[in-house]
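> forwarded from #structure-qc
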């Protein structure tokens, strides 16, 4: 394993250092080849080695490429990027949900409801809905473990074994709905990241997106995908649900603590303050909130969380507690580097955009905007199941933008679609952290079963992209 690691590390360094000496391809310039080599080296490192050191090395190499004056400028451009700052504070805020046990409270409440008793399919849907909701509010990985444990408990109570179809279906469905929910709300880190890729690729032709438009689109798209997914499960998997007709007892949770109520209030404030500017008339409060900006709103809410004290004089939250519990440093390094180098690669001085257009022009010359949209989304869906989801988006969004602009396709709609397609990396362990968790759960699902259930989710998503996502997205974002 060490030999393989060091071999891949050597490939990373060689790509970054020597790719510039390859004769320029198409309309690429020497600068473009240099930056492309840095990006390919970082990509290889992210897939085979690590997230952090390839990211740092890529930024150092960017400083020597001639794109920036020096390494400090390359590092500064990354740190000062507004998208990266917003992602950083959103990650800090996400710890509010994972450290307070709010996820467990709401999941248990949903499953214990009268709506589920004696209705196996309702119970199954509600467990996955709980995962979707938790993922939507930044507690997806906590929800996966919690809902998996719930499935195991229910299975033991009613008599399912690890060989039965229902627990296998639920273990995989929880992962799929985590992927679906993680892109549901417009202020989530993944959504902000992907639109940041598009803003960089557009050279600031686009600098923002409407939160209300994205929210309406994502809710409709997720609802339609949910219906199709469960229809596939019901008629293709056909699990035996008879054992779930019995009454199921799930441990009751205690009442919400003052700390949990405080956290819920902060979450509501975040939702309201980030979405409401899109609904307000011009002037007054809208101007104030727009001037303040989403990044400052998130940071102010975090600061406010650390201000009040409990009866014993201790703070409800400390900044250290939230930062340690929320910031995923490997992911943050990768996103920051991918955003910076992606923007550099798509700049006019590299010739990359023109080369990509020349490469795909014969394919798209006679294609309609609708066919192009389908191809771009399905290509993202295929790519993300081979490499990391964020990396897939970092590649596809800059490639998509020039064609979308040229063909009259709405880049905002395409970015929203790529958000969902890029986050559905389930087939291979390397495709996403959630995919790695699913493949690692061999006690309940084998590799072949993971692939079967993953293909079911991918098929449902692809069908809804074609029938709902693209047509509805054009209406909403048009």
């Amino acid at each position: 394993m060490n030999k393989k690691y060091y071999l891949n590390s050597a490939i990373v360094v060689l790509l970054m250092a020597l790719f510039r000496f390859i004769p320029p391809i198409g309309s690429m310039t020497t600068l473009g080849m240099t930056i492309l080599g840095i990006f390919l080296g970082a990509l290889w490192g992210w897939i085979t080695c690590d997230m952090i050191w390839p990211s740092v090395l890529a930024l150092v190499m960017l400083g020597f490429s001639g794109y920036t004056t020096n390494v400090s400028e390359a590092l500064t451009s990354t740190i000062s990027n507004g998208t990266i700052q917003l992602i950083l504070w959103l990650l800090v805020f996400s710890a509010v949900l994972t450290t307070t046990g709010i996820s467990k409270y709401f999941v248990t409440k949903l499953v214990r409801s009268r709506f589920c008793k004696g209705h196996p399919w309702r119970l199954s849907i509600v467990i996955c809905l709980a995962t979707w909701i938790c993922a939507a509010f930044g507690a997806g990985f906590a929800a996966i473990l919690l809902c998996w444990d719930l499935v195991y408990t229910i299975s033991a109570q009613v008599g399912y074994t690890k060989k039965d179809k229902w627990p296998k279906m639920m273990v995989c469905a929880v992962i799929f709905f985590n992927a679906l929910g993680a892109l549901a709300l417009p202020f989530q880190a993944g959504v902000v990241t992907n639109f940041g890729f598009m803003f960089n690729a557009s050279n600031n032709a686009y600098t923002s997106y409407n939160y209300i438009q994205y929210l309406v689109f994502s809710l409709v798209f997720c609802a339609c995908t949910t219906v199709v997914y469960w229809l596939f499960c019901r008629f293709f998997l056909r699990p035996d649900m008879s054992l779930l007709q019995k009454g199921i007892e799930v441990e009751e949770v205690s009442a919400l603590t003052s700390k949990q109520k405080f956290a819920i209030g902060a979450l509501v404030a975040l939702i309201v303050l980030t979405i409401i500017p899109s609904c307000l008339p011009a002037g007054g409060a809208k101007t104030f909130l727009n001037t303040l900006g989403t990044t400052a709103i998130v940071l102010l809410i975090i600061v406010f969380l650390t201000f009040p004290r409990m009866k014993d004089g201790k703070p409800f939250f400390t900044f250290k507690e939230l930062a340690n519990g929320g910031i995923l440093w490997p992911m943050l390094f990768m996103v920051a580097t991918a955003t910076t180098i992606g923007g550099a690669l798509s700049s006019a001085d590299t010739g990359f955009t023109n080369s990509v257009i020349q490469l795909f022009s014969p394919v798209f010359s006679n294609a309609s905007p609708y066919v192009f949209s389908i191809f771009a989304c399905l290509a993202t869906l295929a790519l993300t199941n081979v490499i990391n989801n964020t990396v897939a988006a970092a590649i596809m969004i800059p490639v998509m933008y020039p064609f979308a602009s040229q063909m009259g396709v709405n880049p905002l709609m395409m970015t929203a679609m790529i958000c969902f397609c890029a986050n559905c990396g389930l087939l291979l362990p390397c495709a996403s952290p959630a995919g790695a968790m699913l493949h690692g759960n061999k006690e309940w699902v084998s590799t072949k079963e993971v692939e079967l259930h993953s293909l079911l989710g991918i098929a449902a998503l692809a069908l809804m992209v074609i029938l709902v996502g693209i047509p509805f997205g054009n209406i909403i974002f048009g």
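QC bot note: The mean pLDDT is 84. The longest helix spans residues 447-477.
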